[in-house]
Write a structure and sequence with these properties.
two-stranded antiparallel sheet; disordered C terminus; 334 residues; 15 helices; alpha/beta; single chain
């Protein structure tokens, strides 16, 4: 197939160059596109007329134009954030400000986003990470995680977070609409204290806070499957710091059979009894999708706040997010 250069705008507002005759079609191979019927069903979850949506976009755009510290975004990005946050414009403003601010504060996670780097490649070999191609019956996107090795030395928490951020941004750009995310952590290969030592409890709860308050996404459930007693004790401790509605969404499952009550078995990877493909292949395909959009990934490094241009004290950004000065130890909790 002859490769041709084509420029386009992503929903994040970034101008990228694709080098393929049909790059969008190639990218779509990782996830199954929605049918018109499915898209309409999702939109009906939070019905809004075109006029109302345009008015909401105008409100957010008017606010963004007065925020010199924030990058320019596309109307498509704003529309997706509005839908995800049920068109609550004040909440949208807060999350957008938080979303770009944490990118500035944590360069160890949001910088160096080249998927072809040696560090990135090593993490791909150490951890399986991928979305399931099909949405659930309730139109949720399922993200899967599993250690590919029991060697604790091959795992790097910062690389895990960086790669997860890139996968999530790719999905937010590629998915037309969903009603939220479901995370499934397969702890089959998490057997030793040396592995769990990477996960400082304070660090983990702060990361969860950022994901819940600085991303335009609804986290519907977080499953931990095949969980060892030591891990369950640690994770129960983390749950203590969350509001009740979030505690109820963190679930411990003894086996994958217990998930079959909630989700169709066929949508799972082969290792879990499904038909989606084996985990190594799905993880590699996700990596290849990011490589196809390498220029876009790298461009995302620049999509962050510039606090030197912030006018006065923010009236919208979450104080517990903005209170961080590039160090997780300074992140405060309510």
């Amino acid at each position: 197939m002859k490769l041709t250069s084509r420029q386009s705008w992503t929903s994040h507002g970034q101008l990228i160059t694709d080098y393929s005759a049909n790059s969008k079609a190639l990218i779509r191979t990782m996830i199954v596109p929605l049918t018109d019927v499915q898209l309409k069903e999702i939109q009906n979850f939070c019905p809004r007329s075109k006029v109302e949506i345009d008015q909401d976009v105008d409100i957010v755009r008017h606010w963004l134009n007065k925020q010199p510290h924030l990058p320019k975004t596309s109307d498509e990005f704003i529309k997706k954030v509005l839908f995800s946050l049920k068109y609550r414009t004040e909440k949208v403003k807060t999350v957008i400000d938080n979303y770009y601010t944490v990118k500035e504060l944590f360069p160890q996670i949001y910088g160096d986003l080249d998927p072809t780097s040696e560090t990135f490649r090593k993490h791909v070999e150490a951890v399986y990470m991928f979305p399931l191609p099909k949405l659930t019956a309730d139109f949720h996107r399922v993200l899967c995680y599993r250690m590919a090795t029991t060697n604790a030395k091959e795992f790097c928490p910062d690389s895990q977070l960086k790669r997860n951020e890139m996968m999530w941004n790719w999905l937010f750009d590629e998915d037309e609409l969903t009603l939220g995310d479901i995370w499934i952590f397969d702890l089959t290969n998490m057997e030793s204290m040396a592995q769990w030592a990477h996960f400082n409890l304070s660090f983990m709860k702060k990361i969860l806070k950022i994901n819940m308050e600085a991303k335009p996404v609804r986290i519907k459930r977080v499953h931990f499957v095949n969980i060892a007693p030591i891990a369950e004790t640690s994770l129960n401790f983390i749950k203590h710091f969350f509001p009740q509605k979030y505690k109820d969404r963190i679930l411990f499952n003894a086996t994958f059979e217990s998930l079959q009550v909630l989700y169709p078995i066929d949508m799972f990877p082969n290792e879990w009894g499904g038909k989606a493909g084996n985990m190594a292949e799905l993880s590699q395909r996700m990596h290849e999708e990011l490589i196809k959009r390498r220029s876009w990934c790298i461009a995302m490094e620049g999509m962050k706040a510039d606090s030197s241009k912030r006018i006065g004290q923010s009236k919208t950004a979450d104080k517990s997010i903005l209170g961080v000065e590039g160090n997780f130890k300074k992140l405060c909790f309510d």
